[in-house]
Amino acid sequence: MGKNFGLGKFFLYLFIVTQALYMIAQLAMLVDGMSREFLSDTAKKYLPNGLTKKDKNGLPIHGYWLTTLLCSFIMFSSATLPNINSIFNQLLNLNGIIDPFTTSFIFWAFIKIREDEKKYHAEYVYIKNRRML
């Protein structure tokens, strides 16, 4: 279609914009998820009260500001790169670092909580079989 109709560059730029938006959104979601976990109920012991403030739905208000600041810092630091390929590679590198770290941290926390179930009481148990641990 690119050669016949002359739309090759259009689709290339459309893909670049779509992929960049996808990576930025994924980065924001990963940072948001981590900030929600970071600012959970147990964080009140260790963090300032202003940072753990929640709205009527239980969402961390200032956690979103923290997420916005972190994502803005990452995006503005990417703006200092010379061209779009460098920005794309920077987002790809960040995504490659953050995604496995997040997944492994959540898995590690899940295993630690499962090892000491009596200390961390939960109303809902995801895996009830103790042999799976």
UniProtKB/TrEMBL annotation:
GO terms for biological process: transmembrane transport. It is a multi-pass membrane protein. It is found in: Membrane. Residues 10-120 form the Amino acid permease/ SLC12A domain. Coiled coil: none annotated. Pfam families: AA_permease (PF00324). GO terms for cellular component: membrane. Keywords: Membrane, Transmembrane, Transmembrane helix. This is Amino acid transporter. It comes from Lactobacillus kitasatonis DSM 16761 = JCM 1039.
